[in-house]
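To fix ideas, we close by showing one paired sequence and structure record:
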Amino acid sequence: VPTISTDDALAYCEGEEFSVVFTVDIEDADAYQWLLNGEIVEGATESTYTAIVAGNYSVEVTLNGCSGISNEVTIEVLSNPAPEISTNDPLSYCEGDAVAVAFSIDIEGDSYQWLLDGIVIEDANQSTYIATEGGAYSVEVTVSGCTGISNEIIVEVIDNPAPIISSENQLSWCEGDEIDVTLEVDILDEEATYQWLLNDTPIEGANEATYSTNTVGVYSVEVTLNGCTGISNSLEVIQDTELHPIISTNDILTYCSDEEVSVVFTVDIPTADSYQWYYNDEPIVDSINASLTAHN
């Protein structure tokens, strides 16, 4: 009775190419016919055979007019595992939030390797994994030497909106003026919600992309978009008390008709935005500083 054997592996993973060389222990027979799953393999009539497909192999050997069929040797192609990961945790987070997503897998494997954006996560070799940052997560599972990769689940970290407010109106008003300021924000989106603040306190009913006010204070706006909130810069509307500058001098103010006059006047507000000196209610050209020297 002939016996076939091989030194090659007999188990392969799905998609893996293989080549298994079988030999029979009767070398000088009159004829050989190799069989696959009991069916004749066309052209396979030598004492050796190289198999490239899975199945049950045997050989029929004829010697001195007598035939015998060998033992069967099986080449097996194993299906790659098809793991699926899942989670019960939220998958969307706002910038600055603590991310914690616990993933689990639906099959038991011999080994595991978790991936983030297709790249190996160091020391992530268990059947569960807790994600702490955004990205696309998956896992490679190995069963009986064959590896399959799971579905991907994306953890999204959404940037908080960064609104900027501005106004085409003046923000500084004098005492007694009627304040009229319209503020607007640069994020205009149908999905956005707005909450205007005055001195960091929400203004009731101020929930549009613009806000008009006649009140002094520090204004800002909170904008929420895609579930995430950001607060804008601040703009201050001010109303200054009316100025009452006082001028003075240390020089004498009475001169004889033939004396040279030189009187230095100063104003008690040394850090004003601008100055304009007058003589007999008429502006003095180029007299725009905090002091003035009067001559005859």
